[in-house]
Amino acid sequence: MRFSRKGVLVTGGGSGIGLAAALAFLREGARVAIADVSAARGREAQAAARAEGQEVLFVRGDVSREADAKRMVDRSVRAFGRLDVVFNNAGILIEAPVHEMSAEDWDRILGVNLKGVFLVSKHAVRYMMHHGGGAIVNTGSVNSLVGDADAAAYCASKGGVALLTKSMALAYAKHGIRVNAVAPGWVETRMFAQEAKTRGVSVATYRKHAGAQHPIGRVGRPEEIANLVLFLASEDAAYITGDLVVADGGYTAR
Ligand code: NAD
Questions:
Q1: 174 C-alpha vs ligand 1 centroid, how far in Å?
Q2: Could you confirm whether 172 is annotated as catalytic?
Q3: What's the predicted TM-score (pTM) here?
């Protein structure tokens, strides 16, 4: 068990990649808090954990608000007596090219996907620096590396996550804190279903369309991203920091 007795916080843990990672951390012996803006998804995640005979702490909050971000960290530390791992995973996607995007939607996307990583990390690092270090894994995307004409703000946010990750890795290496990011290709989650809906196609049609864009021939599963997150958060990755690691079925290999 790679995370026996460790304290782990997963933001956006109520669904998709975050939920898969939270369950994987639990199976590896961790005590896990999930933070999510949606109470319903928090309850669903707690039920999913219970179905495996596990308990998960749910903290409701919005990562783009500093008071909420601080509370996510504080409640985890209080519940577990320690915080070893943060998976900054909460994210949203609103698709639009620049000329059609409202300033409000721009702020929302950057607020959750980039500022949220900054705010949760800020409070987690303050704790980790004085308590023996830790590991932070941020969620980038293939759009940390390549653009998408219809998702300008999303690409800007995920590009930002890649360099925020490097900056934090440099700042906190001497404090025993490693900071890395994962860059998933398309993964079948709620966000994926929402994209299909935006395009007016069924999930099955979109799965086929999206799968064809990945050399491996299919989209990813949340558990496949969770596997990488756990590796980067574990001692197996003790010499890895400041990296953005793709798990994208070859999407960016072209
Ligand atoms: P999802 O919609 O299934 O899950 C995201 C979770 O984040 C939801 O439970 C949602 O309620 C929560 N959330 C949203 N805004 C929040 C906020 N302000 N504060 C706290 N929680 C909030 O999506 P997913 O596909 O699992 O996405 C997880 C991460 O992976 C995101 O950062 C996303 O950008 C990234 N990602 C997804 C894909 C994909 O194809 N699904 C690809 C690359 C990267």
A1: 31
A2: no
A3: 0.98
